[in-house]
Amino acid sequence: MAILTEVKQKEWQAAVNYVTEVYETVKKRNPGESEFHQAVKEIFDSLVPVFAKHPKYMEQSILERISEPERMITFRVPWVDDQGKPQVNRGFRVQFNSAIGPYKGGLRFHPSVNASIIRFLGFEQIFKNSLTGQPIGGGKGGSDFDPKGKSESEIMKFTQSFMTELAKHIGPDLDVPAGDIGVGAREIGYMFGQYKRLRGAHEAGVLTGKGIGYGGSLARTEATGFGTVYFVEEMLKDQGLSFNGSTVVVSGSGNVSIYAIQKATQLGAKVVACSDSNGYIYDKNGINLDTVKRLKEVERKRISEYVTEHPEARYVEGCSGIWTIPCDIALPCATQNEINEINAKVLVANGVKAVGEGANMPSSLEAIEVFLNNKVLFAPAKAANAGGVAVSALEMAQNSMRLAWTFEEVDAKLHEIMVNIYKNSVKAAEEYGFPGNLVVGANIAGFLKVADNMIAQGVV
Ligand code: NDP
Ligand code: 2IT
Q1: Which parts of 319-379 are beta strand (E)?
Q2: What CATH number has the domain bearing residue 156?
Q3: Which of 45, 185, 359, 405 is the most buried (most CB within 10 A)?
């Protein structure tokens, strides 16, 4: 027995050494890319039990291969503003991994976009897409273009110029972009139009999140927010808890937030706060989603405007203060690293029972530690927000079949996918010795499928 333990310790140490070594190489190869390093660290650390049990992945240099994108494209995006002045932005597309399907992942338009952000998002997407059970590889893209304050015509000109270059690198069986921060139905529409014009063909499956009239899927708009709530619902159910009667805080007020608020409310929760990058609103009686939808989806205004229509609510400048509001369930749905260690400690002190990540990497590594150490039920982004890309894959399937499912059909498939992701994450966590730790479980379950299929396809 003592010998067995010693052998196990040796294997564990070999796995730790391997992960540490490859992580150092990743840092050296991608200097200064802190978000990418953070995403890599979280995943690599979770995989130690896998390498300790199955040294074949180390022998196959799987981490070295999986952390280097198959292709990273950067390009100039020139456009002319309304004053007639030429402007230049930088465009990106990372085609990270195609082991289980064509590259798939969103496009982000935000001034903070750089190589680190794109690489972190693309890396996470590999494992998230694997978890969905759909045949999609990992990719991501975007630009440092700031859509805020731009006219309709500037948005169209920029978006067309962006697609003029991107079109050379994408296709329904090659790489299928969709939306993310700053890219919604309007931008997807302009991009699809430009792609169609350049290709001279209506290849519906080249983009997802399209309008319903030209190949979009019903329930794609709702999918990420709904999916996050479906996942958290499963996690709560396992502990005899539910959304019904709970107080919920949702950060952001964009696509993911709005539909997370809608579904949580439908399940009987009271959502008391949401935010944008300037500040947050707090309405103790529950926020009025119709107002938020109109302000954000139609009028494209700031969330501060909410209080002029609802004087009973309060607006507070600065978005991180939202985490000081006592709640049972927190759903960060805005952006990366929006919950730091201090925010996490305050949430715990105020009695938070569950955290569900609708955004990508919204909790810092230290914040995740705080949640796990304090037995907060924690639904990690890769698993919890996979509903968006899952329904994107269903959109691709409908495009290939040239037919359209009803809202109810797509929503039922989404629900089933989220339940399966939850079950598979729980199972992997248990099997590898970390019961209840969904960070470890989701990372391992997502990794194994990709790694096995990379090995099956040889060193490419
Ligand atoms: P939207 O552009 O629709 O909304 C983003 C929201 O987050 C806005 O309220 C925005 O405020 C706020 N926000 C953005 N950047 C910051 C920032 N730096 N600081 C504070 N607040 C910020 O994007 P989505 O809802 O689509 O995306 C939100 C998150 O969900 C992202 O992390 C994205 O990667 C992730 N995600 C999205 C999916 C999708 O299908 N759309 C799928 C899976 C994950 P403001 O208006 O002031 O900028
Ligand atoms: O982060 C994400 O999963 C998305 N932005 C959605 C990607 C997609 O292809 O639907």
Answers
A1: 329-331, 354-356, 377-379
A2: 3.40.50.10860
A3: 359
